[in-house]
Amino acid sequence: MDSRRRLAMCLGLTILYAFIEFATARWAHSLTLLGDSGHLLVDALALGIAMAGASLSRRPPSEHQTYGWGRAEVIAAAINGLLMLALSGLLVTLAIQRLIRSEPVPVTGWAVLLVGGGGLILNLALARILYVHRGSLNVRMALWHALGDLLGSVAAIASGAVIVMTGWMPIDPLLSLVIAALILVAGLRLCRQAVRVLLEGVPPGLDAVRIGETLSLLEGVLSVHDLHIWALSSEQVALSAHVMVESLGDWSTVLERLVQHLETRYGIRHVTLQPESWVRKVPVGSVARRRSGAG
Questions:
Q1: Using CA of residue 258, residue 264, residue 267, residue 270, what is the dihedral sign?
Q2: What average pLDDT does this structure show over 184-201?
Q3: pLDDT tens-place string over residues 223-258
Q4: Which of these, 157, 164, 167, 155, lies nearest to 105 by C-alpha position?
Q5: Do 208-290 and 3-198 have the same topology in CATH?
Q6: Cα separation values, 89 from 14, 15, 116, 149, 200, Å
Q7: pLDDT averaged over the chain?
Q8: What is the pLDDT of residues 66-95, one digit of tens each?
Q9: Is the Cβ–Cβ distance between 37 and 15 less than 8 Å?
Q10: Coil, strand, or helix at residue 279?
Q11: Quick one: residue 269, left, alpha or beta (phi over 0 = left, psi -120 to 50 = alpha)?
Q12: Class for domain 208-290, per CATH?
């Protein structure tokens, strides 16, 4: 099953259980369960946006979109992150309003306990489904959502259990704050990763200085400068650099050596390198090489 089908299946299950949690939360007057259902609804919207982003990212390059639509999934991830931040703020507001009330809102603990347990089982299943294809940013995003919902379900179970055993109602808004914190952390993580890609930062796990040093050690290369590394999408990295070589006559051989090194050691397949003469130290031409199906 490919990532799009996995996302579609997770979307359907998430929407279904979100409505179950929402209806139960309204009936049981549980803010914790309401927060978890809101988290699920945001996740459903997030998964829908993720599916659209994944579909757009598969479109081939065109004369107007020469790099293709790979960053559509990054924009989708950024939207998802902002939605999660908004949901976190809403939950905090509702929890504070309930905590400062003179009389606690009565919560039906057994209903929260049962529905929270069902949510835990669902999110464990979703996390297992998504874990296999976690390489894509959108699938990783969906996996983070499922893990966050899993912790939210644990909070709902704890809230229901405490109310059933002790009758202490403030536990419900207090644990809803825990859910808000989980949503906030996940939203900030998504926004940070999306912003890194959109601002063309060096992708996580790659060290530009180290890569430049290893390239300069290859045979025929004297030095590497003006090195830039950025992400075209969550799965495609690009690199450009100026390379000072011993002999321009050997550039084709040196280029092949550089491209192969970048692909095999760092997984960078979109490479643009410009040779420079070690004698004149001025650019004498440019050579671009794409290793994404073209030789």
A1: positive
A2: 81
A3: 898 899 988 766 678 899 999 988 888 888 899 999
A4: 167
A5: no
A6: 22, 22, 22, 17, 29
A7: 80
A8: 666 667 777 777 887 888 888 889 889 988
A9: no
A10: coil
A11: alpha
A12: alpha beta
Length of the chain: 295
Name the residue with tokens 């809230």: 159
Residue of 24, 194, 181 lying closest to 108 (CA atoms): 24
pLDDT computed for residue 46 by the predictor: 67
In one letter, which amino acid is 53?
G
Would you call 285 exposed, middle or buried from its count of C-beta atoms within 10 A (0-12, 13-18, 19+)? exposed
Question: Measured between alpha carbons, how far is 55 from 81 in angstroms, rounded to an integer?
Answer: 19
For the chain, the structural domain boundaries read 3-198, 208-290
Please give the single-letter amino acid code of residue 70: G
DSSP 65-134: -TTTTTTHHHHHHHHHHHHHHHHHHHHHHHHHHHHT-SSPPP--HHHHHHHHHHHHHHHHHHHHHHHTTT
Q: Kindly write down the DSSP assignment for every residue of 127-156, as one continuous string.
A: HHHHHTTTTSHHHHHHHHHHHHHHHHHHHH
More confident residue, 187 or 287: 187
Residue type at position 265? R
> Cα 4–267–244 angle (5° rounding)?
145
In CATH terms, the fold of domain 3-198 is Alpha-lytic protease prodomain-like (1.20.1510)
- What is the spatial order of strands in the sheet that 287-290 belongs to? 221-231, 237-245, 270-277, 287-290
Contact 141, 43 (CB under 8 A): no
Q: Is the CB of residue 273 less than 8 Å from the CB of residue 243?
A: yes
> What is the reported pLDDT for 295?
38
> In this structure, what token pair is assigned to residue 100?
């400062």
